[in-house]
Amino acid sequence: MTQKQVKQQNVIIKGTKDGLTFVLNDQCAFEDVLEELAEKLSDRPQPQENSVRVRINLVSGKRYLEKEQVTLLQKQFNDHIHADIDTIETDVITKDEAEEMRLDNQITRLARVIRSGQVIEVRGDLLLIGDVNPGGTIKATGNIYVLGALRGIAHAGVNNNKDAVICAGSMNPSQLRIADVISRPPEQEGKGGREMECAYVDEDDQMVLDRMQKVGQVRPYITDDLTL
């Protein structure tokens, strides 16, 4: 005796404390999703005219929803349950989004000295082979690595990224800044012979200056194997 095959649902509705979540099958035609959505919404009780509009979270998986398709889905919600699409969760990204991710994760490599009055700003991480003189400024949306002396201003995590770090071969800056946390470490006596140092923001939102070896413990995603 063969078991009756269960038809796969193209739309699964889940109630949450914030509204409703609609999980859409990403393996069928979009028209099939619309058809099943209309059927399921028509079975639900009609809301009162002055009722609060429900917030909808769409989960589309590997299906990328075009603007026209989102409009068609929203029309179904308007016609049946007076609801608004609030968020869309998808595993797919557009070319523009992929390019934005690439830029945010790129490493800009410079071999030069940053002199007084000069300002260098990059998107992503900055790897500087050279010194930052007093009065010079370097900024990055990601991490900053200085293979030289840092005696000027370094601002990492410009877009409020508190996970960013600042590393230098010789750390004696006029100012360190990570996201919106600002610190000027005390001057250290002596010149040369010191280990590379790193600065990071701890769980108390305090700037910490420590040995370079510490960065792998506090920020495990960072590797010290930068290919020049």
Automatic annotation (TrEMBL):
<keyword id="KW-0131">Cell cycle</keyword>
<dbReference type="Pfam" id="PF03775">
    <property type="entry name" value="MinC_C"/>
</dbReference>
<comment type="similarity">
    <text>Belongs to the MinC family.</text>
</comment>
<dbReference type="GO" id="GO:0000902">
    <property type="term" value="P:cell morphogenesis"/>
</dbReference>
<dbReference type="InterPro" id="IPR055219">
    <property type="entry name" value="MinC_N_1"/>
</dbReference>
<dbReference type="InterPro" id="IPR016098">
    <property type="entry name" value="CAP/MinC_C"/>
</dbReference>
<protein>
    <recommendedName>
        <fullName>Probable septum site-determining protein MinC</fullName>
    </recommendedName>
</protein>
<feature type="domain" description="Septum site-determining protein MinC N-terminal">
    <location>
        <begin position="11"/>
        <end position="88"/>
    </location>
</feature>
<dbReference type="GO" id="GO:1901891">
    <property type="term" value="P:regulation of cell septum assembly"/>
</dbReference>
<dbReference type="Pfam" id="PF22642">
    <property type="entry name" value="MinC_N_1"/>
</dbReference>
<comment type="function">
    <text>Cell division inhibitor that blocks the formation of polar Z ring septums. Rapidly oscillates between the poles of the cell to destabilize FtsZ filaments that have formed before they mature into polar Z rings. Prevents FtsZ polymerization.</text>
</comment>
<dbReference type="InterPro" id="IPR013033">
    <property type="entry name" value="MinC"/>
</dbReference>
<feature type="domain" description="Septum formation inhibitor MinC C-terminal">
    <location>
        <begin position="111"/>
        <end position="208"/>
    </location>
</feature>
<dbReference type="InterPro" id="IPR036145">
    <property type="entry name" value="MinC_C_sf"/>
</dbReference>
<dbReference type="InterPro" id="IPR005526">
    <property type="entry name" value="Septum_form_inhib_MinC_C"/>
</dbReference>
<dbReference type="GO" id="GO:0000917">
    <property type="term" value="P:division septum assembly"/>
</dbReference>
<keyword id="KW-0717">Septation</keyword>
<comment type="subunit">
    <text>Interacts with MinD and FtsZ.</text>
</comment>
<keyword id="KW-0132">Cell division</keyword>
